[in-house]
Structures are given as C-alpha cells and as structure tokens.
Fold this protein.
Amino acid sequence: MAVDTLLERITDHANRADPYPLYAELREAGVVRQTDGSYLVGTYYDIAALLHDPRVSSDPRNLAAPYRDLAPEEGMLSFIRLDDPEHHRLRGLAMRPFGPPHSPGRVDAMRSQIASITAELLEALDGRTRIDVVEDFAYPLPVTVICRLLGVPREDEPVFREWSATIIDFADIRPGQDPAERRTIGEQALTEMGRYLVDLAEDRRGHPGDDMLSAFVNEPGPGGAFTREELAATAVLLLVAGHETTVNLIANGALTLLRHPDQLDRLRRVPDLLPLAVEELLRYEPPLQIRQRTPLANIDVAGVTIPKGAPLVLVLASGNRDPRRFRDPERFDPTRTDNQHLGFGGGIHLCYGAPLARIEAQTALGALIPRLSTATLLQDPPAYRHNAMLRGPRHLHIDL
Amino acid sequence: MSGDLDQGRIVIVGASLAGLRAAETLREEGFTDSLTVVGDEPHPPYDRPPLSKQVLLGKAAADATVLPTRRDPDADWRLGVAATGLDPAGKRVLLADGVSLPYDRLLIATGTRARPWPDPAQAALDGVLTLRTSDDAARLAERLTAGPRRVLVIGGGFTGSEIASACRERGIEVTVAERGPAPLVGALGGTFAKLAAGLQRAHGVDLRCGVTVTALRGNGHFTGADLSDGSRVDADVCVVAMGAIRNTEWLADSGLAAGRLGVACDAGCRVFNAYGIVTDDVFVAGDVARFPHPLFEYQMLALEHWGNAVAQAEVAAHNMVSPGPLRRPHLTVPVFWSSQFGVNIKSVGVPSFSDQVVIAQGSLGERRLVAVYGYRGRVTAAVTVNMAKWLEYYQGLIEAAAPFPPGPGAADGSPLVTEFPVPSNVPDPRGLLHGPTVALTGHLPDRRLTLVRPGGIRPGG
C-alpha cells in the first residue's frame, strides 16, 4: 500500500491491536510525507535526534496551518506543549515539590503508599473468578496515587475519578459519537477539575500539608510562583499525562505477560527482574506511541527536508522496534539491559512522571503476577481504546 | 573470542574506575583465566566525582563512594601495593613489596595523582591539602566541618572551583588564586571563563586572577600565603588544586612511550613503545592514556573524564581478548560535567580544540545557555550551563563535523546568535596554573607539531 497513507492506517482503529507491521513499513520507507501534509518518522536514531533538536518545537502554535490535534486533553497552557524558556520555568516550578534537587525523596516515599493502594485494590477482588484488569485494577491505581500526591481529600476522590474518566474519553472519540459534543464535555471537565484543584490549593495557603498543591502555593521558586491559570493547567496536566499512560502500562504489561507464559513464570520466580521487565515493556508495548512536533526551520532528516511549520509525527513505538538500534527487537525479553527506549520520550520533555510510573508499574505488576500465573485471557487481542497516540486495551477480561 | 585469548594471565595495574570496568568487561567477554588487579591505595575501587561535591558538603562520607560492580570480576586484588617497574621483555610487573607478577597481557590504568605544592617544606604545613583520593577528601571534609575562618584554593580549574563552591555552600570564606585570567579558562576558554568568574564572585568567592601564590606561610600550621601581586591571604586551610600528574614514573625504564603527558597508544588502546612501534600485549585506559582521536585530527588526547575512563576501559578489555579483525577503536566523544555554585556545567567534544565560540541557546544573563565551539568552520564542542538535555543534539553536530556556526532556529525564544561568533580564547596550556581537564598533548590547534623533551614542551616544525 502507498506509504503516504501510513498515518491514516496507523490511526485507523482496525489496526490498533497490532500497529507494528505498519511501523516496520514506516522504517523501511524512511521519512514520509503524508497526504495530510504531515511528516512521519519511525527510525530510532532519527527520532532521538529530533527529540533533542533545538529547532523542533513542542508548541502547536508554530504550525504553519491548522492540523488535527492528536492530544486535545493536554490543554494549551501546560508545559508539555510549550518551548523554553516558558517550558523550563513551568516544569521547574512543577518539579520543585516532586523531584531532585529540591525534593529528591518524594517519589521514593510513595512506594509504601502505592503498595498499600495496590493491596487494597487486589483485596477487593478476592473471591472473584473473572476480572477486568483495566477497570478493576489498572484504572483506579494511578488516579488514586495522583490524588494522594496532590493532596485531594479521600472523600473527593470519586468525583475526581469521574472527571478523569471524562477527560480520558475526550480524545478517544468512537465511531458514531459527535466530536463537537465530546469536546464540549471534555473541556468542561478540564475546566472544572482545574478550578477544583486551584481552590484546593488556595485552601492550603498558609496552612500547608505534605502534598504538592500545598508546596505549589506555599513554597514558590526564586522566580515566583504559578499564576492561577498556570497552576490549574499544570495540576490537570499531571493527571492527564500521568493517568492513562500508567493505566496502559499496567494493562499492556499484564497482556504481554499473559502472552509470554514462560517470561511470566520467570518473573514470578525472580521478582528482582521486575525493574528490567518494566523497561522492556516501555520499549515493547509503550503506552505512549506517538508524539507531535513542529520544526522551526527546514530540517533535513534521512535525506528528506521537512519544511518549517509542517506537522512532524514521531512514532516512538516504531523507534523502539528498530533493528538498527535493538537486537532482536520483536522479541519481548525482560532481561534486556541495553534498553535506552523511547517509551518516556526524550530531550527536555522527557517524561516528568517517569520515576513515579516506574514504581507504579513495578508494584502493580509485581502484585498481579502471582494471580496471572493461573489466569486465562478471555479475548486476544482485547478491545482497544480508540486513541492511537496513547495506546492500550479498553478492557482486559481474565478468568482467575 | 577465538584462539586462546580467553586463557592466560592478565594483570591490570590501577584499581580505580578504569581498572574495575576493564576487569568486569574481561569477564563479560568470556575471559576465564587468571586476572590480577594491582592498586596502590588500600581501598576497593571507589568513585571520585562525589569527593569534590557531596563529600565536601558533608552529605556523604568519604568512604561511602565505593563503586558498584556490574558483576564480580573474580580477580586477585593486590591493594595497597604500588607497581614500581615493568619488564616488557620478561613480561613482568614489579611491585613495591618485591613481588614480580608475570603476565601474558597487561592493562595500564594507573591514572593521575594531585600535583603537590612544589616546596616540600611548605607543602608539609598542617592545613595544606590536595584533593584526589578518598583519604584526601576525608581530611578536607573534616577541616571544613571544623569551621575554618578562610580557605585558600590554589588553582581555578574544575576541582578548585568545586571546592570553592562547597566552601561557600557551607558558609565558609574562600579565596581562589588563579594564574590565568579567569576560572576554568584552560578547559573552556577565556570567553566562557568570564561566566565562571561572575558565578564565583556572585557567590561571595574572593577570586584573584592573574596572580600566583609565591609562598605558603606558617609555623607548623598553615596561616596564609603570599601572592605575586604583593598581597597576602590569611587562611587556616590551603587546598592545592593545580591539576594532576600522570602516574607514569614506574614505566620510566620500560621502553614504552610513557612520560609526563601519559602513555601513548593507538586507537585500539595498544601501547606504543618509545620507537613508536605498537605493542600487542600492553594496553592502556583512563586518565593516564593518550590516544589519537579522528574527530580531532588524530591528535593525541588525554582526558581526565569519568566517562572516558569507562568507555576506554571497555574498549581496551574487549581488544585484549579479541583477535585483530574483531577489535574496536576508542572513538567516544569526550563528555564531562561539573556542578558548582548552583549550576550544572556539561561539556561534549573538546572545547579547547576551538578558535571560536557562539552562544547558541539561552543567555549569559539567565545563567542558562549552550555555548558551541568551532574550529576552522566546523563544530568541535558544546558546553551547557543548566541545559544539559540539549547536549545530545550538539554531540550529533560534532560527530558529523557540522559547519560552524550552527544554523538558526532554536525553540527557546532567543534565536541563535550566529552573527556574533567570538574567539574562544583557548590559552596555551603552559600558561595555566592547573592543567586543563582536556590536554591537547600533541599540539595546539594552530601548531603543526610539538616535541616533548625533558624539561617541557617545545614547539617545533
């Protein structure tokens, strides 16, 4: 088939269960201009170079012409869609209460909480013979973790979960749904959640708790604090970027292990392999498959000039399977050590929440593995969400 | 591996980062026979970068920087005993305790030591220290904890600057005496060094440039120093940070190409003898090695960098157990980092191999920038201040010998200042008090040849 329809075919829901043959076709074809004017890149070294290229913008406002928004739920003001110096300022403020150098212990201190949330979720499933790994387990875990991090009171967690469900569905338009209506509902949920979080933060001004919202309003950086709008956008981004990605990482992980019973058995016997196994999952079945960028100058990539302002689509998941970078890339090998995958992106936008995601996935899969050993997958491939950028199953039904 | 390369006796002289990584690699590559590692310090291999940072800040103990091992190298460790000689014909390493160690293949990884204060009597004053080993770091950390009124640091290279930074962070008054026009000038050039000088002064360092220390004063205890401008600095502690000396004296009678500038080798880490003929059983890696680098016109580079020690040790070890056609060259682009005065400085390439520099991203005012270095119209290095995540892009430009100055279009709001490349002002290393951490030991960019003679470098050709 013509390579200039590759993006169309990749985003076609019919190919969601297995996009990897399309990615192989893309790597073979090199950099390809699509019929919609975008440029598709799928080879590891080219993607890695573009992620680190200062002439490549993350801000969609640099597009020469309007282009479909692959991730409307990210909002316009969040640092994931801004360039330096604004990106640097906002990400730095967001990082102060979350990671080094100001808060080096925060994520590690979450370990025991994540373990107990995981245990609670699994306990609730005791006695059930059939579960949906997504709905019953993978889905509630990260949203609960984010609530605890931000300092959302327990009694508000259910309403918070509803908003996040609406926001996640926002970008996941299914056939037969009215896009305009979905957009309205999604944007409304974004606004409401942002307002809720800002109000919550304001309540903490002057009497801080040990949570990130408190730190945002009470411990500003040397250059000042977030504005109200920035705080709302950032807090919502932490949920949007940290929730569905982690759900998919856990669900893709469970699915992959069920498809590789030998490796599942190995991980059950040698749990010390879990950190490596999670890295391999991020390479082999990454939740984040695609990122979009915009060149600020004409850029030559693999002999093709990508014009300034053209939509640039980086297929990270294709780079992860590039045989010129990874030995035996189509094999799931949880002992792989040379594994600098693109699962968390790269460059200045390298996933902010990566350390947290790693711990969540290691903990969740570690707790799930003993149960998976005796489980049967009821539908393979399972039903996938529509979203091609954030790829993962909508349901993963198993018999225990 | 083929033939009997996985058998025989391998001796590694040097038990620091390069020695350890080489030992691990030998085992990873299937070497199964006798492996001996000799080290003059009594400690198992430890990591040095934290010694001038976390250890001086009191955040880590000096003996807590033991290097993690990737695997047990299953070696016979001879620690606390120095190598004193080498007999390449008889294939033996002589040790200080009289032992003569036979080898089939040898790896030299003896690194460097701190250059001491030249006057032994003054150097022996209580309170005069150097910083290279973990014992050094323990002594200095203890002095800093005792709350000295002032510390004098002689030399404004990376080590001296990091010591000064630690002092200021602990609220200790510090004077830095630098013979060159600014700190870090040897490694990063005079233009960049202005930023370093500004950083030091902004953090309250009493920075004296263009001066030398003429004498250390004291009666048993160090009390102060005389400077060449006639002034005097009163201090309780003096740290001599005048660069490093390569540990090659033990090779003086070996007939190998070993001397003040290091141990010369080919691109595959095989050591040359003094006639320039390559050996096939003696290899070298780490700070003590000088090797030709194709990206820098095959000049003989000697790098005192953590990353180089690791990469070169791996290549050397691989080549020690691999037949000719499977041997690899050591082509890694040099990378180093430093944290001081609240900023992270990271470099790729060889900044001293340059004639011009431009600020490609960020700005001096923000103290966040990428400086790109060029030599005769191509990119040879980049140095970031608090912008390390961009470095990979510039590494690509260096590897591709991309045109200098680089093209415009940076996505950070301030376009490339390509109109204004300025001279990088890389000094002649002879004019520096401390050694630059990258030594272009072959010749300066504008010289064709430099001959090495006892007593110093003489430009020739």
